[in-house]
Design goal:
Elements (H helix, E strand, L loop, with lengths): L2 E4 L4 H13 L3 E5 L9 E5 L5 H8 L4 E4 L8 H22 L3 E5 L11 H14 L4 E5 L3 E3 L7 H8 L5 E2 L3 E2 L1 E3 H10 L10 E3 L9 E2 H12 L7 E2 L1 H15 L7 H7 L3 E2 L18 H15 L3
Parallel strand pairs: 1-2, 1-4, 2-3, 4-5, 5-6, 6-11, 7-10, 8-13, 9-14
Antiparallel strand pairs: 9-12
Length: about 300
């Protein structure tokens, strides 16, 4: 099957392209900028607002894997990138007669009232669900692995021995390579995957209590860490400080405080992927350690 992939130059997208190439699956991938030629990948220059590029992207393909999205913006940016962008990809697929559509959402869509980001992901999900296409939605928890910059700050904090975590609660995580294998496993249509929303994870029942996740990050960098619980008020102050220090590159935004303060970001068992279709392969302790090693090799950590 030939795939049309959005977000192929991003963190998760890179993992998906690498896995597709490994499997010998031809890919047409959308990119804002010129990319180096790569065997098995046909790059299409454009973005989600470029209808001509989207038409070119999906032409002659069998399925769309829609990964692209905005994770750090204001409400207008989330609406444009996550909602309107998804609607544009859906329209391109419909116009080209491409029926199969696998969309990457977020656990944040489960609680749309907590953040503008979560609302935009929920609205994007609704656009997919009402598209008339043969769809599957995947809500990943926190995704980690080499090349990622979103979780990098937690590894850096662990290196200093202090990993502040939201007070109470638990969260699930997943390695990017496991997520990539899942997305490609979902491409073939079937009754067990069509019109389903899945919430994958690393296979740890009940997710990771925040304190234990902090300790796991410490083990990955070879440090014993303290994981002080941080309440919503302190997170808000930290977000304002991050904005002052890093401006538009701030990772802890006020919008993120809304969902970070929520105690339950554990993938739900009732939305688990059928075991005969996919199961995580990467042990989290080993995956975190390998990620830390990669960061060091790149000079990021």
């Amino acid at each position: 099957m030939t795939l049309a992939v959005t977000g192929g130059t991003g963190f998760v997208g890179q993992a998906v392209l690498a896995e597709a190439v490994r499997r010998g699956m031809p890919v047409r991938a959308l990119a804002r900028r010129e990319q180096e030629p790569r065997e098995g990948i046909a790059w299409v220059r454009g973005d989600l607002a470029d209808t001509a590029a989207l038409a070119d992207l999906v032409a002659g393909t069998d399925a769309v894997v829609h990964i692209a999205g905005v994770i750090n913006s204001d409400a207008a940016g989330f609406q444009s990138g996550n909602v309107a962008g998804t609607e544009a990809v859906i329209e391109a697929a419909r116009s080209a007669g491409v029926r199969r559509f696998v969309a990457v959402s977020s656990l944040a869509a489960r609680e749309p009232m907590l953040s503008a980001y979560g609302r935009s992901k929920r609205l994007a999900e609704e656009a997919v669900q009402t598209s008339g296409l043969d769809w599957t939605i995947v809500r990943p928890p926190t995704v980690y692995g080499p090349h990622d910059r979103e979780v990098l700050d937690l590894f850096r904090a662990a290196r200093w021995g202090v990993v502040p975590m939201p007070a109470g609660g638990s969260a699930s995580i997943i390695h990017a390579d496991d997520l990539a294998r899942l997305l490609l496993a979902l491409v073939p249509s079937g009754a067990e995957v069509s019109e389903r929303i899945f919430e994958p994870d690393d296979g740890r029942p009940g997710g990771w209590p925040h304190r234990e996740l902090a300790q796991a990050l410490g083990a990955a960098v070879g440090r014993k860490v303290w994981g002080p619980p941080v309440g919503r008020r302190m997170l808000s102050l930290a977000a304002r400080a991050d904005r002052v220090l890093r401006g538009g590159k701030a990772k802890l935004t006020l919008d993120r405080v809304g969902y970070m303060s929520h105690p339950d970001w554990v993938s739900r068992p009732e939305r688990a992927v059928p075991a005969e279709l996919w199961a995580p392969q990467i042990d989290t302790a080993a995956g975190l350690a390998l990620t830390a090693r990669w960061y060091r090799e790149q000079g990021w950590l």
